[in-house]
Amino acid sequence: GAVVSQHPSWVICKSGTSVKIECRSLDFQATTMFWYRQFPKQSLMLMATSNEGSKATYEQGVEKDKFLINHASLTLSTLTVTSAHPEDSSFYICSARAGLGAFFGQGTRLTVV
Amino acid sequence: QKEVEQNSGPLSVPEGAIASLNCTYSDRGSQSFFWYRQYSGKSPELIMSIYSNGDKEDGRFTAQLNKASQYVSLLIRDSQPSDSATYLCAVNDDMRFGAGTRLTVKP
Fold this sequence. Notes:
Order of helices and strands of chain B: EEEEEEEEEE
Largest interface: A-B, 20 and 21 residues
Oligomer: heterodimer
Order of helices and strands of chain A: EEEEEEEEEEE
Strand content of chain B: over 45%
Distance between the termini of chain B: 37 Å
Largest sheet of chain A: 7 strands, mixed
Helix content of chain A: under 10%
Structural class of chain A: mainly beta
Structural class of chain B: mainly beta
Distance between the termini of chain A: 36 Å
Number of strands of chain B: 10
Number of strands of chain A: 11
């Protein structure tokens, strides 16, 4: 299957700082990528759909100014959590469609202290 | 009505049994169907896709699609403890997932 690489796999940051998470499609071009957040023992929640060369589409209730998404190339999308707070601590996962079906990055575990 | 619904579980089966996971969908025109598996603390992975009515087998996994009744199932034969995970159903291009079905296979 297609490979999606996400970096970093875990990060600890101080409250008030920003964190950038990268998502790369390694062996295919991804015009669309997806960003999810998952709290412990909860469902995977779609945050936004990232489109190459255009603005991301955010799901209802997701703050677009807090979760900045950039999809500057066909193989790279980034999610920046700005002014992070402890309640932003979560597991963030990206995915991309390749042919039929979607492939997921390894996820980034963010802890804000 | 939600577009895609799964039996919420949790589902518990003994090792070696057949685990049956079900998913119903509302859009009669749906064309593609996917099953993902998510282990606790990990990201999901695609395990099966099916597009035509009938069965599709891949090792111990069989996906069954019935478009007339608008459901898709995943059967896991000879269930193993390593199959314990949450299974997510997806339809067409919709990348929103529900809670999925949590499967526990007991030794």
